[in-house]
Amino acid sequence: MSRPSWMPWLEAAVAFERALLTVSAEWIARVPSLHDKIALCRWVWSAAERVRRQSQTLPHDRRAVAIDGGLDAGARALLAGLRDAPSARAFMGGLEAILAPAAAAAYTRAAGDGPRWAAASNRSAAVFYGAVARRVVRRRRRRAWEPDERAHLGRVERLTTCVRTLRPAPDRTVERCAPLMRPERDRAIRALRRGERRHEQWVVTSRRDEQQYLHQMIAFEIAAFEAVGRHVAEFPEMPWAFQRDMAVQVRDELSHLLLWTERLASRGGRLGAYALSALEFDACAGAGLSDRLALLQRLIEGGALEALDLNRALWESRGDPRMVACVVRVQRDEIRHVRQGNRWLRWLAGDEPTLRDTVARAEDAMRARLLEAARELEAAGVAAAGNTELMRLKLDEGRMLPVNPALRRCAGFSGREIESECARRALGACP
Predict the structure, then answer these.
(1) Coil, strand, or helix at residue 191?
(2) Over the chain (431 residues), what is each successive 10-residue block's mean pLDDT?
(3) pLDDT at position 428, please?
(4) What does residue 34 show for φ and ψ, rounded to 5 degrees?
(5) pLDDT for residue 164
(6) Which of 133, 139, 157, 223 is deepest in the core (most CB within 10 A)?
(7) What is the pLDDT of residue 74?
(8) In sequence order, what DSSP letters do the residues of 108-147 get, joined into one string?
(9) CB-based burial label for 426 (10 Å; 0-12, 13-18, 19+)
């Protein structure tokens, strides 16, 4: 029996949205503006949701085929054009001002075909793209585009015709982007140099202390979603379930960022008063995927499980229920991130001895890399004396907290792994 006429277009749309998710994730760390980073985080999550909803409208035996489907030549050319934009401004212009209106029109037309459930999915996608296009029109200003940026936008505009004529292709093209060693940041969220550390404020006794504390929390969220975006962009051959899990984490880190920035504004703070660290990004940059999961999700965010216990106690002692609620919510989401990291680390490692070796090797390599960078900055006079010791203390701080076995069990650690972590800690023993 032949497929209904609406089904091939929807299958191709699912494959296109998955590929667009990868391209958007790649640029999260490459755009310098926090406004654009936030927009791309939302784009990544919404694309993941469109893949999920649209694939569920297909017959069960066609869902995996659609998700892992290939792109026709026009769609591949369009995505390559976006990915290879000459500047962040040109990329965002192509994505929001050219692709979004074309996609809104295409999904609106497609909503008239097929059964009710497929039409509803297409209408939902049309609403998202239409909202993006309208926001761009409202804030559009005359811009002095560089010649290469104008040429790029013209090429993207010509290629958007493929969105109206999506056709499934027999083979999925997996294109891996080049590793990115440092995230781009504008002045408001400028990052410390790789290997540079400054004194942190974790005991809040004044409004100024709180503003520095909030900058530290903001720094973690930004560096985390930048790093997770690279998980997706640099390893596009991973299964769809992995990409969706990473999209969930991007969504969560963005929601945490918005919590902290709202609090900072309410306390009279201004983002940019303190330079933000990019430690979480620096720890992962250039490493293989297993090492990245071991470092970010398992070690850094795993250590944050217990650190957030102390954060909660701090705000409880200050009688601030709103901050307590924020910390509890962040801790709940971190449990999910660590659990997802453990799941995929086990999938990649295959067995427990390999997993243990991977984690130990990744941690040793990260420590050596960051301490060497810290020593070089200090020796060159770029960083203040004591910079290396500050970095060492930062890398060791997780070992100074007692293990919380209940949290770690929720985060997917086995009993043996929890016992091993207790032995690894400098202080504290499992109850």
Answers:
(1) strand
(2) 71 92 97 97 96 91 88 89 94 94 90 76 91 78 80 92 79 78 95 95 94 97 98 95 98 98 96 96 96 97 94 95 97 98 96 94 97 97 95 90 94 94 66 41
(3) 43
(4) -65, -35
(5) 76
(6) 223
(7) 87
(8) HHHTTSS-HHHHHHHHHHHHHHHHHHHHHHHH-------H
(9) exposed
What whole-number distance in Å separates Cα of residue 177 and Cα of residue 248? 21
350 φ/ψ sector (left φ>0, alpha ψ -120 to 50, else beta): left
Residue 120 pLDDT: 85
As to burial, measured by CB atoms within 10 angstroms (0-12 exposed, 13-18 middle, 19+ buried), residue 343 is: middle
DSSP string, 374-386: HHHHHHTTSS-TT
Cα separation, 18 vs 11, whole angstroms: 11
Tokens of 357: 């070796």
d(CA 248, CA 140): 30
Which segments of 31-169 does DSSP mark as H helices, in order?
34-56, 60-67, 73-83, 88-92, 100-110, 116-139, 147-159, 161-164
**By the 8 A CB rule, do 121 and 53 touch?**
yes
Q: In which residue are the tokens 């100024």 written?
A: 208
pTM of the model: 0.94
Q: Count CB atoms within 10 A of the CB of residue 142.
A: 5
What φ, ψ does residue 169 adopt, rounded to 5°? -115, 155
C-alpha closest to that of 195 among 333, 60, 389, 32:
389
Contacts of 182 (CB under 8 A, 6+ apart): 191, 194, 278, 281, 282, 285
